Amino acid sequence: MTIVYLVRHGETQWNAQKRIQGQADSPLTEEGRIQAKQVAMRVKNLGITHLISSDLGRAVETAEILAQVLMLPVQTDKRLRELDMGILEGKCVSELTPEEDMIRRSPLSGTPDARIPNGESMQELANRLHDAIDDLRMLPDGSVPLLVCHGLALGCLIGTVMGLPAHAPRRIRLRNCSLSRIDYQAGEWLAEGWIVETAGDISHLESHSADEL
What we know:
Oligomer: single chain
Number of strands: 6
Number of helices: 7
Largest sheet: 6 strands, mixed
Mean pLDDT: 93
CATH superfamily: Phosphoglycerate mutase-like
């Protein structure tokens, strides 16, 4: 069995402003850095052997905070990037026109092959994410990788692992620095393949204050 932990990056300035990020970027807020420290303390005793991040700045910044606790180098993989939101990147949700808001919702509403202009479809997102996690099975026996990724990307990954189509309406909320886990199971009780063990755990964010870090 292969165990893979999944962490969404910490809160960013654009998250706080409700601005669409996609593959554009903004730095972590102070709250985002605290969240990263909290999840680092949560995972420090889980035997993590590899720390792999999306190459977008907000994910790398989160991973570097984790790296200080885990004492591991940060590897990057551009396949872990967020959904490309095309022409909407950088715009505040509250300032979208009705047409732009309809375009924003289309990839998340169950419309097959929907894409924001100059962006990508959820199926394209799912394909590259599954390529990335399938490569993890080539790591040495006993490896326990942790991936630092993004909200829509992780929601898509977890949904497809559960057997949903990539374009299925979004039903999974993954907050900043939430912790999820997927396993590759080859045992006799379940069909071979990836399964979801945990999705969106934020207990570590609720049980610590900034003064404890």
